[in-house]
């Protein structure tokens, strides 16, 4: 028997269907709310509002659960790899050996980008933030592949755009870094796996041989898995709403990159390291800043702690914390900034003030630490987040298009002036 929810307003009763998902989450379907009652709902930040039904990622903020297509993030981080997880998110099932090999081969075949894109890159000053460079180059793909402007092409044509995105994103990301460093760009090396190829494009220099450290490549692959999707977060919702107007996948993903750029979203990992470096520059007294964080009159806030959705712990943070400890030990990293991070982490996990407020270290806290240990510069951290999130954005865009979802167009409650007559300039 289907459930329903009743609303009474100004003496009228209204009844709306309740739908329940496969993990027993229920939602009131208010598609007919305004037509039947004249009412709309108001929910700034949409914290209580479902924008869609999705079969891609399930997370439970209370229980600290995260699954991609039903598979536990813990299992995927331990047993899978980023390309296999990308396939799972986008096509819905773990690939067979043949499917995986074909997918990997297609991606390898498309890593190169049009030489004219280098001219776009060269137009950016070296102080351009790599996120702005990345979103610009992704959007520029609409110029080099104009057929992609129509999102309603055949499944094969849409899939080619998907392959091109996954294949070229590491190239663009590495080139954005090289532009910042004033170094010549490196072309992809198709003999390498996805993460090793990215690291070589990032760090290889013409003057010397570059060998990818397998420890670094493996840690990066795990980080990308952990960031691959997270249901209807800000940047994914941006990708969906831009795609809902039938903008191309490249324009939609470019918009998602720009949403992720914000310090309240993907930029949080960059803000964590900037916070740690500021504490170090101020003498490195972690306790001083822990006390400042507790002082409600002090504007200082701890970055990388707590989460809007996870109320007890971020399952990705547990996995990434272990990876951070392993990588720092294996690489023999000795960094005072990371020592400060350890002091803040210990306090957050043991000080009742932070425990009571669920201010535990989140995925951004640890990802910033690992990226720093891997030698990735701070303003590239959010680019790394985008690299990981790409398959999730693609999967969500694809699901939205395949489900024929309508254009996103929220309503509002108007609070401005009531009707008034125009006043000529000489009477104001
Ligand atoms: C994410 O992974 O997108 C972040 O944790 C933010 C979120 O889910 O709201």
Automatic annotation (TrEMBL):
Catalytic residues identified in the record: 307, 364
Pathway in which the depicted protein is active: Carbohydrate metabolism; tricarboxylic acid cycle; isocitrate from oxaloacetate: step 1/2
Reactions catalysed according to its record: oxaloacetate + acetyl-CoA + H2O = citrate + CoA + H(+)
Gene Ontology, cellular component aspect: cytoplasm
Top-rank lineage group of the source organism: Bacteria
Keyword Isomerase appears in the UniProt entry: no
Entry keyword set: Transferase, Tricarboxylic acid cycle
SUPFAM superfamilies (alphabetical): Citrate synthase
Keyword Cell membrane attributed: no
Protein family according to the UniProt entry: Belongs to the citrate synthase family.
NCBIfam families: cit_synth_I, PRK05614.1
Protein name in the entry: Citrate synthase
